[in-house]
Amino acid sequence: MPDRKSVIPVLGYVGAGAAVYPIDDGDPLYEVSVAAALPQGTVGAIVRGDSMYPIFEDGDLVAYSGKELTADDALGQTCMVRLEDDRMLIKTIRRGSEPGLFTLSSTNAPDIEDVRIVWARKLVIRISREFWRQF
């Protein structure tokens, strides 16, 4: 039977209502082991804010794919996104008012309209804030 464990390097924070910028010092904040086989390159971030409540709560751990998507390929999906100003957010991607611009939708906050997305990455797993520190 193949090994069904994975380690998620937690690289920083992702905004769900809070403005969050990436931490890029090369070292993860945490490493979380999970009893699941995750795609190669999967990394994690801790949710800050409540704009995606009740789907994602402040303090939840989200793991996302290491594979970058274009914003066009991620339309209609809830993804981790990096904007031109380096903010990292977890939002649902919608078409903006003109080509190259996108609207980011939340479940619990107004849309962020007409932004440029550097990349989007698919979400792999969410671990509730009550449980992820136990792993």
TrEMBL record:
<protein>
    <recommendedName>
        <fullName>Peptidase S24/S26A/S26B/S26C domain-containing protein</fullName>
    </recommendedName>
</protein>
<dbReference type="InterPro" id="IPR015927">
    <property type="entry name" value="Peptidase_S24_S26A/B/C"/>
</dbReference>
<dbReference type="Pfam" id="PF00717">
    <property type="entry name" value="Peptidase_S24"/>
</dbReference>
<dbReference type="InterPro" id="IPR036286">
    <property type="entry name" value="LexA/Signal_pep-like_sf"/>
</dbReference>
<feature type="domain" description="Peptidase S24/S26A/S26B/S26C">
    <location>
        <begin position="9"/>
        <end position="109"/>
    </location>
</feature>
